[in-house]
Write a structure and sequence with these properties.
Blueprint: E1 13-17, H1 19-27, E2 33-39, H2 44-57, E3 61-64, H3 66-73, E4 82-87, E5 92-93, H4 94-98, E6 106-111, H5 116-128, E7 133-135, H6 146-151, E8 161-163, H7 167-176, E9 180-184, E10 201-206, H8 214-217, E11 222-224, H9 237-252
Helix pairs in contact: 1-2, 5-9
C-alpha cells in the first residue's frame, strides 16, 4: 500500500478549471478557494476578470506556464489557462477516517467507475442519504474534476469523500478495521433488502462494464443483489448506488 501518512493536496482540494467554473467558485460564498493558478499566457479581459474576482474574494493568484496549468488540471483541452483549488472540508484520507475516534460505519467503495457523471451522481446521492463516506481511489476511478462536480450539482465540494491509492488498498484497510465488505452483483441470491449487516459495512460498486474487479472481489464478505422483477439485466451504477443508499436510510429509521 502507498504511504498515506502525508496528506496529499488531492485529499484536501477539488480542482476546477476553465474560466466559468473558476469564476463560479470564486463567487460562491459557501466555498473556500485556496488559490487560483493562471497561465502566464492568459491575457485580456478574461484573465482580468479572473484576477478581479479573486481579489474580491481575497484569494491569491499564482502564475504558471500554460503547460503547468494543463498538467495540474489533468485535462489538456478545456482548462482555458486557469484553475482553482477549492477546499473540500469533508474530504480526507481513508486511513485518517478509520483511525478517528468515531470512524465511519457505512461507506461506499468505488471500484473502476470511470464515467465522471456516475461518480458525481453517486457523490450527490450518498451525501443526500447521509452516508459516512464515499471512497474514491486515486487510481482506477474517474478523477474528481469539473465534470464530476457538475454531475453532482456542486454537492461534490461538500461530500464525505475518502481518498486512498486503489480500491484494493481500501478493501484491505476496511477489512483490517473490521468492516464487512459487500459487493453488488446481479446474480447474488442475497438481496440488499434482506442481508444482515454488521456494525461496520462497506459496499463495493463496480465499474460500468467489468463490475467489481478480481483484486477487490477476493476480499468480499458477501455478494448482494438488487431484486429486479422486470425484464432488465442491470441498473446503471449510480442508480444502483441510490437504491442501496436509501435502503440504508430506511434501516437507520
Amino acid at each position: 500500500m502507498g504511504d498515506e501518512s502525508t496528506v496529499s493536496p488531492k485529499d484536501r482540494f477539488l480542482t476546477v478549471y476553465g474560466r466559468k467554473p473558476v469564476l463560479e467558485a470564486l463567487a460562491d460564498d459557501g466555498l473556500r478557494v485556496d488559490k487560483v493558478i493562471l497561465a502566464d499566457t492568459a491575457r485580456g479581459p478574461g484573465a482580468a476578470e479572473i484576477q478581479r474576482a479573486a481579489k474580491e474574494a481575497g484569494v491569491a493568484v499564482q502564475r504558471a506556464s500554460a503547460h503547468r496549468v494543463k498538467v495540474l488540471a489533468g485535462n489538456g483541452k478545456q482548462d482555458q489557462g486557469v484553475l482553482a483549488d477549492v477546499v473540500a472540508p469533508r474530504m480526507r484520507a481513508l486511513e485518517t477516517a478509520l483511525s478517528d475516534r468515531r470512524p465511519p460505519s457505512r461507506v461506499l467503495l468505488l471500484d473502476g467507475i470511470t464515467t465522471p457523471a456516475n461518480v458525481g451522481m453517486i457523490l450527490r446521492t450518498a451525501t443526500a442519504a447521509g452516508l459516512d463516506g464515499v471512497i474514491v481511489p486515486r487510481r482506477g476511478v474517474a478523477a474528481l474534476d469539473p465534470l464530476v462536480v457538475k454531475a453532482s450539482a456542486g454537492v461534490a465540494f461538500r461530500a464525505p469523500v475518502l481518498r486512498c491509492g486503489s480500491a484494493r488498498d481500501a478493501a484491505e484497510m476496511l477489512t483490517e478495521a473490521g468492516f464487512g465488505l459487500y459487493a453488488l452483483g446481479a446474480s447474488a441470491r442475497t438481496t440488499i433488502f434482506d442481508v444482515d449487516l454488521p456494525q461496520r459495512a462497506a459496499f463495493v460498486l463496480g465499474g460500468e462494464t467489468a463490475g467489481v474487479g478480481a483484486e477487490v472481489g477476493e476480499l468480499v464478505t458477501e455478494w448482494v443483489s438488487i431484486p429486479m422483477p422486470g425484464d432488465v439485466e442491470s441498473l446503471n451504477v449510480s442508480a444502483a448506488a441510490a437504491v442501496l443508499s436509501f435502503e440504508l436510510v430506511r434501516r437507520a429509521r
